[in-house]
Specification:
Blueprint: H1 5-16, H2 22-25, H3 27-30, H4 33-41, H5 46-61, H6 81-85, H7 88-99, H8 105-116, H9 125-138, H10 143-154
Helix pairs in contact: 1-5, 8-9, 9-10
Length: about 160
């Protein structure tokens, strides 16, 4: 059995998600017996499926207001569980994304929140990239950032950041 919230989320993202995201945004369709059966057939436990849906619900409810890019603004300081779960590489990657306008401060906080909600001992950079991709997918007006992030993850030769 696959026992990770992230595994369920990635399965949904790769196999169930439609172009406009309505399959994951509509609570009735998310909790349909057909989708639950598909996830169970894919090897996910009922508990992890429900945790993944709760994760998606929290993401949908926590849409931050767009914030202007501050360029060389203040630096985010991490503490407690954030330091335990996000190593220097993942924190550096978040800083990189914010400095290059891929994420604004509100989106960064949402990424940190959703990464910590994965219930993993540590979130590596590959897992964090998936969380960033899912957060950007869910954010209206983030289409260009989402497309850039997809390019970074799936292309053999990623686009440079300008």
């Amino acid at each position: 059995m696959k026992e990770s919230i992230l595994d369920v989320l990635l399965y949904l993202f790769e196999h169930v998600l439609d172009a406009d995201g309505s399959a994951l945004r509509d609570a009735d369709s998310r909790h349909s017996s057909a989708l639950l059966a598909e996830l169970a057939d894919a090897g996910f436990s009922t508990a992890e499926i429900h945790k993944a849906f709760d994760w998606l619900d929290a993401l949908a409810q926590a849409r931050p207001a767009p914030q202007p890019s501050r360029g060389a603004g203040p630096v985010r300081v991490y503490a407690g569980a954030e330091l335990e779960k996000l190593d220097a590489d993942t924190r550096g990657f978040l800083l990189f994304l914010e400095q290059h306008g891929v994420l604004d401060a509100g989106q960064r906080e949402l990424v940190v929140d959703r990464a910590l909600a994965l219930e993993q001992d540590a979130v590596d950079i590959d897992d964090l990239k998936w969380v960033v991709l899912m957060v950007l997918f869910d954010q209206p007006g983030s289409e260009a950032a989402y497309a850039w992030m997809q390019t970074q993850m799936f292309d053999d030769e990623p686009e440079p950041v300008h």
